[in-house]
Amino acid sequence: MKKKNSLAMGLVLVLVLVGLVGCTSDTGPSTYAVNQQEGIWVNGHGEVYVSPDIAILQLGISAQRASVAEAQAEATTSMDKVMRALKNEGVADRDIQTQYFSIQQVTKWDQDKSEEIVIGYRVSNLIVAKIREIGKTGSIIDSVVEAGGDLTRIDHISFSIDDPSEYRIEARDKAMADAKARAEQLASLSGVTQGKPTYISESISYPVYSQPIKVTEEAVAPITPISPGEIKVSLDVQVVYTILD
Question: Is residue 176 part of a domain?
Fold first, then answer.
């Protein structure tokens, strides 16, 4: 009986496998997989260097006092002054966003007690400000430092383009031209004729240039020098061309 059951199960298994093979032979998934590797596969790169038109400042206030209430009150007062300074310089409300807020214990190791003890509290409030009048970046930094005083923190500055679409068009033209030139060379070297594209994929690198910035008392007078320079708008494409012969 066991032998008959085993034989029956084996026969069913064979029939299932035959059925699967029969189904795949008509649609040809293996042929589909092979077709995915056919053609001339190339990558193209295009880039454009442009002057940024916005600056992004990460700045804020950090206050440390013996109690939470004292630290928070001092941080709040200083941040209000910083916000007013930004708005007085023409930075709109929509271009100011809170990025980080925290209240943390400040501790130290007590040798006598052999344990960590709380010696105060630190309140940190960081914001990101987008400066659309990029030429005013230096004076805005100075205004913020003056308003926030010793509690001011300016972590870094970034430069970007508010609307990079026109530059991406130029970079895309260059990337496609680069891909086509690569495909033509490969076709020539291989002795085949290049056909039309059958697949195109694009990836974009967002144009942001970031660097740390430190503002000291000496740097505040008369105006903190800021140089935006140029940033790169780049774009990559992957193109597959058919082979005609």
Answer: no
